[in-house]
Structure to design on (478 residues):
DNA sequence: TGAAATGTTGGGGCG
DNA sequence: ACGCCCCAACATTTC
């Protein structure tokens, strides 16, 4: 009887373009697909609430795809470094294959896994596939990692076009006997009491089918005006691919090649496409940074920020989390996040700037909130994004770049559609007063049925004063 | 992938 | 006719 290979699914929940799975199939041995819900290894960084909802549905989708190939996804929970050797023993496996990941805890965990398996004569192999360019391939002339995005991405592109995606496997040999696992329900990934995500299935389609649908929708329209459209949160102008990418339901090189195919000939479209692909570049940059500098998940990348005088006012943090700051665009974003597990990127920048600069709350508090509430919570993107906004990151926004949340609303939600949708108590205000309700004339507020302080909060900080205080705080660490 | 403060210019009202 | 002021509009610098 042939010994099987265990394929360990991690954040690569797809069958298409998966080098490790392909290698397992090519070996000619039966393949046992396994997923391990590991809340132990990641510790404080284990999967957040909103992401767990997504994970549940993504696993359900993967299960269905595997079943169509006659295979079953074995589900277990526990520390991967213990669970995988146990599974390998139970099925007398010859090897465990998986995709590389770059979280700070992965090297130690994988080293332990490697040692345990090899001691029992079981091979352990990791494969690329989650990034366009492996971290080892990209470095400066001096051999050090890039710390600035533009030269980083230039160096990536100079490596040439990523290889074409692998074909989806047509068949999968399964072992004669398969160890027992948990049911998906046993993993208890969905919220209960209350099920705050009950309506999310109408908003999202987790799984590789939903991922390719999202790419198709984007490339059939919004990409043509991406450069401008992506800044306006009320427009359906972004790809909304982030949760699909985080869980690996589609590979970055699939996205790359689909974008090339859709935009090839037209030069103006090519420019928009390159703008979109550079967003994949920021994803690469974040993941490479996490690979080379794992300490960035808790330490400021720029050392001067170690002494930044954060205030950490819990009431301010709470107002921000609940979308009750009195700044309509900020509140709209925070409520979109809470209600849908997602926030438009422009608004992420504004809300993050508001927390760190207007409220002087530590970026780690905001990072933790986003990580728990976003369906696309990705450690690398989230940490690097927050450090970028706070000014402490690699190639970060300069510290004096403080968004004016009112002006941002006027500029990018010019018709007020986004604010009216997420802050309905302000919906009756005319657009010219919507972005700054507390400054509206009394009769306008009365006509719209808005009483500031009752129906909608007064601004929790004064913009001018908060800006001055932030500048003073940053000046103190220079 | 800023915003605010400050500087410059030029048209138009006005005495 | 001319100088003066005001103030958009735009440009530059500063944070």
């Amino acid at each position: 009887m042939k010994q099987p290979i265990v394929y360990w699914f991690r954040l690569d929940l797809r069958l298409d373009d998966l080098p490790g799975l392909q290698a397992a199939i090519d070996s000619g041995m039966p393949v046992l697909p396994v997923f391990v819900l590991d809340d132990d290894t990641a510790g404080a960084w284990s999967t957040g609430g909103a992401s767990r909802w997504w994970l549940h549905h993504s696993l359900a989708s993967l299960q269905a795809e595997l079943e169509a190939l006659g295979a079953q996804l074995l589900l277990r929970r526990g520390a991967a470094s213990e669970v995988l050797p146990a599974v390998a023993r139970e099925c007398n496996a010859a090897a465990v294959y998986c995709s590389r990941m770059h979280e700070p805890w992965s090297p130690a965990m994988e080293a332990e896994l490697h040692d345990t398996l090899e001691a029992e004569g079981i091979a352990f192999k990791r494969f690329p596939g989650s990034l366009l360019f492996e971290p080892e391939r990209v470095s400066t002339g001096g051999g050090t990692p890039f710390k600035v995005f533009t030269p980083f991405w230039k160096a990536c592109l100079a490596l040439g076009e990523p290889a074409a995606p692998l074909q989806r496997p047509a068949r999968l040999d399964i072992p004669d006997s398969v160890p027992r696992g948990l049911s998906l329900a046993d993993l208890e990934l969905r919220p209960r009491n209350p099920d705050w995500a009950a309506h999310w299935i109408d908003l999202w389609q987790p799984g590789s089918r939903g991922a390719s649908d999202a790419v198709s929708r984007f490339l059939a329209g919004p990409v043509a005006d991406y450069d401008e459209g992506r800044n306006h949160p009320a427009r359906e102008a972004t790809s909304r691919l982030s949760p699909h990418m985080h869980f690996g339901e589609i590979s970055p090189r699939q996205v790359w090649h689909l974008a090339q195919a859709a935009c090839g000939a037209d030069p103006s479209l090519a420019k928009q496409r390159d703008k979109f692909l550079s967003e994949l570049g920021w994803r690469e940059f974040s993941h490479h940074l996490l690979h080379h500098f794992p300490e960035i998940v808790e330490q400021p990348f720029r050392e001067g920020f170690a002494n930044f005088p954060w205030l950490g006012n819990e009431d301010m943090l709470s107002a921000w989390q609940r979308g009750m700051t009195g700044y309509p665009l900020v509140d709209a974003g925070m409520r979109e996040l809470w209600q849908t597990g997602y926030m438009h990127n422009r608004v992420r920048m504004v809300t993050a700037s508001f927390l760190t600069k207007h409220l002087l709350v530590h970026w780690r508090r905001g990072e933790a909130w986003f990580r728990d509430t976003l369906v696309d919570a990705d450690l690398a993107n989230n940490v690097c994004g927050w450090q970028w906004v706070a000014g402490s990151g690699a190639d970060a926004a300069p510290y004096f770049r403080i968004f004016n949340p009112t002006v941002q609303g006027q500029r990018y939600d010019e018709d007020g559609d986004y604010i009216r949708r997420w802050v309905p108590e302000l919906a009756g205000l005319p657009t010219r007063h919507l972005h700054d309700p507390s400054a509206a004339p009394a009769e306008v507020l009365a006509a719209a049925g808005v009483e500031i302080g009752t129906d909608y909060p007064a601004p929790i900080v004064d913009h001018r004063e908060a800006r001055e205080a932030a500048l003073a705080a940053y000046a103190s660490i220079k």
